[in-house]
Amino acid sequence: MTIAEALSVIPAAVLRNLSDKLYEKRKNAALELEGIIKQLTGAGDHDKITSVINLLTQEYTYSPQAHNRKGGLIGLAAVTVGLTSEAAQHLEDIVTESEQFSIEEFIPLLRERMNVLNPHVRQFLVGWITVLDSVPDIDMLGFLPDFLDGLFNMLSDSSHEIRQQADSALSEFLEEIKNSPSVDYGRMAEILVQRAGSQDEFTRLTAITWINEFVKLGGDQLVPYYADILGAILPCISDKEEKIRVVSRETNEELRGNEADPAEGFDVGAILSVARRQLSSEWEATRIEALHWMWTLLNRHRSEVLVFLNDVFDTLLRALSDSSDEVVLLVLEVHACIAEDPQHFRQLVVFLVHSFQHDHSLLEKRGALIIRRLCVLLNAERVYRELSTILEGESDLDFASVMVQALNLILLTSTELSDLRDHLKGSLINDAGRDLFLSLYASWCHSPMAMISLCLLAQAYQHASSVIQSLVEEDINVKFLVQLHKLIHLLETPTFAYLRLQLLEPGRYIWLLKALYGLLMLLPQQSAAFKILRTRLKTVPSYSFKEERPVRTSSGISFFNGGGGSQISEDGNPNENSHDMHNGINFGSRLKHFKQIQQQHRLHSKSETHSRFNSASSMKEV
Q1: Calpha distance 527→282 (Å, rounded)
Q2: Residues 573, 582: contact at Cβ < 8 Å?
Q3: Given a cut of 70, is residue 343 above it in pLDDT?
Q4: How far is residue 335 from each of residues 268, 339, 383, 431, measured CA to CA in Å?
Q5: Residue 288 in contact with residue 319, Cβ under 8 Å?
Q6: What is the bridge-based pairing of β-strands 558-561 and 585-586?
Q7: Neighbour-count burial of 471, counting CB atoms closer than 10 A to its CB (0-12 exposed, 13-18 middle, 19+ buried)
Q8: What pLDDT is stored for residue 91 in this prediction?
Q9: What is the pTM of this model?
């Protein structure tokens, strides 16, 4: 076919407008030319198509006139678009055999135009990319980072056809990446991370799918980009679209399974920073995975993580107030991992007490969950000893009392602390029980009811009776009675089964009876707790009193002379008679300390009442 033949195919007006100085006229001419080529392609008339390409190449693209050259280029682009899937067989007239064509020079021009919004230009660009990629001698994959972002941008185009073409091109490139030994993962990873945060759902899904493949294929080349990738994945784990959530979770697991080394560019600090930020996400699933990453980093790169501890510690503490129980439990796992070192253990417990002090709702809503879990993770006795040491010197007496009451209730009711309770039962007969009892005693002095409970657990019934006898009128307030009510109910639980069985031997455990009757005398007669305790005491057998007779020594300590002649002091502890000393515990000194602390509480309460009264009076005067 000759050029003359091509002139008969294309209207003169179209050819004239192709070289017009106005871009709009050249564009409209190109659109008409695209339609002509589509008709010829549909008819299979490739000879005429070739003549049109020759005309545009020789008369326009090689012209010394700038407008002609521009018309030739846009005309060739229109031909490429019009050819659609048939473009490959005509590409060598268009590109590859043109001495003036340079892929290196072409790519920057392509990149500059990738974000143009005009749908026709976009269609033309995707067409060029697809055609060039089909040429064996052109390595378009090597230039993919230059126009990848533009292709992703087209995935949200308003035109379904453009979206489809861009998706098709991206799918083809992804398959090529899977089979290519040399890929620039790094540059493209940066683009994918940005696109994973797109508002467009399809763009997010495509970006996450690409990231998923990159994590599997990228190897060491991708390690320096792990932090950025993680920052893209974690929010998508909570995406509203299920497909995105599934791929994101798979990618996250794959990424966490890659045990990279800091020497390979694995930035522990950057990844930890991403996890810390995502711990503030509004989505529970994202917060959970952020905590899994923190735990993983601590186990694999402990020393590196501890360098950044100050950056994450406050965030972890705030997370203890999270609305999700699962998140709180994971936070505690991370805290426990950090607290393996003694100095960090102390820091954790101090910060925890501080948090409870400044956020009473945290103590009320999550206190039991937090303390119980820490006891499992870090050893119950270690946790309780440290808490007691801190609370012993607490200047805020009101908080100290509330905190001790909370710890005491957990001690009495939690299955996780059953071993601790067993140790306390041996307070009067072995060193381990005694040391634990003494470590808790000083802080438990902040709450009379906690102290009574501790003594009942330790089977120090005589001391429990002494504590009850030391209470004065102002101690028996509403708060005290509420706590006493709880204790009476707890006495009916399996925790105190041993105590109830000891009531079968009232002669031997006379101080237990005295302590329980002391509690009964403090209860209002119409209360449910009074009726429960009175009913229990009525079941105590009376015959045992006749078999054993109390003997009082000069020191004031009672012993009971049983049939075998053994002597028992501090109920259940045989053959000790050293005034107020029992298994090395000076109960007289301890009682004195308890009274001193309680006196401080009374003075503090009076001061608070006086301050409130003065404040109310001042308001009335105003």
Answers
A1: 46
A2: yes
A3: yes
A4: 18, 6, 13, 31
A5: no
A6: unpaired
A7: middle
A8: 58
A9: 0.73
Under the phi-then-psi rule, with left for phi > 0, alpha for psi from -120 to 50, and beta for the rest, what region is 572? left
Strand, helix or coil at 346?
helix
- What is the token pair recorded at 481? 């009675």
Residue 573 three-state SS? strand
Residues 6+ apart with CB under 8 A from 398: 604
Distance separating alpha carbons of residues 213 and 579, to the nearest angstrom = 78
Angstrom distance (rounded) from CA 361 to CA 353: 13
* Residue-level pLDDT at 209: 97
Structure confidence by residue, pLDDT tens digits, 590-600: 999 999 999 99
CA separation for the pair 200, 187 (Å, rounded): 22
Answer yes or no: is pLDDT of 551 > 70: no
Residue 552's nearest CA partner among 462, 452, 417 is 462
CA 128, CA 83: separation in Å to the nearest integer? 11
3 state SS of 188: helix
Q: Which residue has the tokens 């119950």?
A: 380
Cα gap 479→472, rounded to integer Å: 14
Single-letter amino acid, residue 544: S
Indicate the residue type of 454.
Answer: L
The model's pLDDT over 360-414, given as tens digits with 9 standing for 90+, comes to 888 998 999 999 999 999 999 999 999 999 999 899 999 999 999 999 999 999 9
First to last CA, the chain: 107
Q: Report pLDDT for 85.
A: 61
Longest CA–CA span in the chain (Å) reads 136
Question: pLDDT tens-digit profile of 33-54?
Answer: 888 888 888 888 888 888 888 8
Phi, psi of 526 (to 5 degrees): -90, 0
Helices 284-300 and 242-257, axial angle in degrees (round to 10): 10
Nearest to 357 by CA among 395, 319, 310: 395
Beta strands at 568-569 and 558-561: parallel, antiparallel or unpaired = unpaired
- Note the residue count of the chain: 622
CA-angle at 594, arms to 468 and 430, nearest 5°:
90
User: What gap in Å lies between CA 78 and CA 70, rounded to an integer?
Assistant: 12
At CA 161, angle to CA 45 and CA 188, rounded to 5? 110
Q: Report whether 78 contacts 37 (CB < 8 A).
A: yes
Q: HEC profile for 246-262?
A: HHHHHHHHHHHHCCCCH
CA distance 389 to 376: 19
Tell me if 7 sits within 8 A of 55, measured CB to CB: yes
Q: Which of 295, 285, 268 is nearest to 234 (CA)?
A: 285
Answer yes or no: is pLDDT of 563 > 50.
no
How far is C-alpha 308 from the geometric centre of its chain's CA atoms?
Answer: 17
**Closest C-alpha to 122, from 132, 110, 131:** 110
CA distance 561 to 547: 9
Six-digit token string for 336: 């426990």
Inter-residue contact 585 to 437 (CB < 8 Å):
yes
Identify the CA nearest to 57 among candidates 39, 41, 73: 73
Mean residue pLDDT across the chain: 86
Of the candidates 188, 251, 259, the one whose C-alpha atom is nearest the C-alpha of residue 225 is 188
- By CB atoms closer than 10 A (0-12, 13-18, 19+), residue 274 is buried
Nearest to 404 by CA among 386, 391, 389: 391
